[in-house]
């Protein structure tokens, strides 16, 4: 029987990063993966392929609508969807091979098959009817999440699709109905809208992007509507009739009332994700789950069974790849006797649409609820030199600082490259920096990032360019 210091179940960003860090710390490590390729949802059917299609569809849109005004004359672009899907696949293959390389480089054993915990120190791996059992001093559960399903609406990944099917449609749907106005729905809606689909988004709540700063979400909704998105908020889908040539979705107000029917060619169910714990043997092993089906852990990622830990989407917290990666590093260091730690107050979130939306720290709503006095500094991209000359002026930067100490508590950006710009705010917040610190830091001119400096100046009511 093979014996290890650590066995990690799942090779998504949390799992493979945990394995690499543990190997760096001198442990003998194995990973268990049930899918044919490493990398989990993120690399195979999530973050990475969606970013490839977002980029490709944005280039298609730019060529059709933006080149001419810059003096670049091209004939109307033609969509070659199979080639675009091939572009996406090349990106997936490159990233997956990268994870394979990291396993070999760090001498990590890859055990192909479904992992099941037989108890502290024992993992069974099953594949193609055969099983093997390995011994290990420590186990990390990094099995990630699965799509959330709507009762009575059967996903077939052809006409009624999850995010997985929406990344591989064989043709552009004439009418795409999206259930859920969260990050996944809006990103995938952007892809197919640019490629020619009519997009309608139905959301149970009375707003888009639940959890994001309210002012940012309102502005973003206006921008998406200008792009051609249609929204039905405070509305629920109760059934989808698949018997005809087109799909007929029955919708009604979330609070109850008269129903109506929406016709669509494809329905995307994007209502979130749920922890994946199926077949892991957690109950039998004594590993407790919380009331939302997530693995219960203490502040050091330890479960209710000694020597078994859990990280990523399978535990509480935002379901983000980078949160899982940081937890993977932290738990590997804790197992090695070091002081691994994750600062959950500084985890950025990004919506990779055009423009992008990014956020780190507290929203205004959260600060109000907590009774924390704060000041706000805002700066629009219409007043930013680089954005003006590029004619990409949609959006603004918003900084929330503690009214007494000036410490930055939250930063929210809507605009081009917002996902890249958010990290200077994250670094500042990691070190407990103030709006004054940010305002006095020299920023290169002309850059979009100057809008962050100006928003920091605006906290003290002294923005220069507004």
**pLDDT averaged residue by residue:** 98
SS summary, helix count: 14
Radius of gyration, whole Å: 24 Å
Q: Note the gap between the termini.
A: 69 Å
Structural class: alpha/beta
If you consult CATH, what is the topology of the largest domain?
FAD/NAD(P)-binding domain
Describe the structure.
- The chain is globular, with a radius of gyration of 24 Å.
- Strands 1, 2, 3, 4, 5, 6 and 17 form a 7-stranded mixed β-sheet that branches. A 5-stranded parallel β-sheet has the order 8-15-9-10-11.
- The protein starts with a strand and ends in a 7-residue tail after the last helix.
- It has 3 domains: 206 residues, FAD/NAD(P)-binding domain (3-Layer(bba) Sandwich); 112 residues, 3-Layer(bba) Sandwich (FAD/NAD(P)-binding domain); 111 residues, 2-Layer Sandwich (Enolase-like, domain 1).
- The protein is α/β, with parallel strands linked by helices and 466 residues long.
- The chain is built from 14 helices and 22 strands.
- The longest helix is centred in the first third of the chain and has 25 residues.
